[in-house]
Request: fold
Amino acid sequence: MELYLIRHGIAAVRGTYTNDDERPLVTKGISKTQEVARKLRSIGLEFDLILSSPLVRAFQTAEILLEADLSSNLEPFTSLKPGGKIQEWLHWLQERRNNNSLNNLALVGHQPDLGNWAEMLVWGSIRNQIIIKKAGIVGLRLPDSIEVLGNSDLFLLTSPKWFI
Amino acid sequence: MELYLIRHGIAAVRGTYTNDDERPLVTKGISKTQEVARKLRSIGLEFDLILSSPLVRAFQTAEILLEADLSSNLEPFTSLKPGGKIQEWLHWLQERRNNNSLNNLALVGHQPDLGNWAEMLVWGSIRNQIIIKKAGIVGLRLPDSIEVLGNSDLFLLTSPKWFI
Reply:
């Protein structure tokens, strides 16, 4: 299956909201994310499901993907909050894969978690050397029958600059 | 400095030329590579230098980058031939960096070497888990003052499908 990790778009500056979880996307963040979403759709991409961090800047990003017809299923997922653990959503994913086929899944979240998760999936350890910009995307191919950690392939890493 | 690894475009089928080194790009390979080159230029990219495997399919790819004004310097480089060793061109690179500044370098070559080299630069070992399609690009940021193997950042991995 293919797993896409998508970082939220450009949001209000940290510190400008009492509750950091409520920082929304700024206008430029919305428009760039919309461009990214349209481009993904024009390539023919469709996600069986989008799971998103419940934080405002992430969930708004996920809603933009939904509005661009990249999926008809979007759910908030607590494990994708900043500092979330890969084991939490991997556990969910393995159960889901055992019960239903899942060809394309998108996770919308935050740095450095997304980069760390990509590194764990591909190389099995975190090195902080995968750079994901805002509204940037990572594409991974997860193996079907062996452990996904350390055995997934990396086929895409791009930021809006290189994409739209 | 930024290092771009670029795989040659779609070439004539293996076995159709007595000497495999002479397989040229096919028409589709030329046009897709031209589109990739134009997009790279439109983003504002410029290479101080392009080094290319001397094999026809690679050198043609490099010439397309040159024609798109991505650089004014192109040289064949034997170490970029299939099976070439990273230490050979890294040695050249370190000497060059000691003598002159080099901000942007593009290497045009072959798989699986390019993917292996990217993995060695980022993680210090080869896992065959970075997928580079024909006319695909890898973007790496090499550190200035420490060993580049195992310490470089990965900021771009894309194929024409996701790029043009």
Summary: The mean pLDDT of chain A is 96. The CA atoms of residues 72 and 101 of chain A lie 16 Å apart. The first strand of chain A starts at residue 2 and ends at 7. The beta strands of chain A are 2-7, 49-52, 74-76, 104-109, 137-141, 153-158.
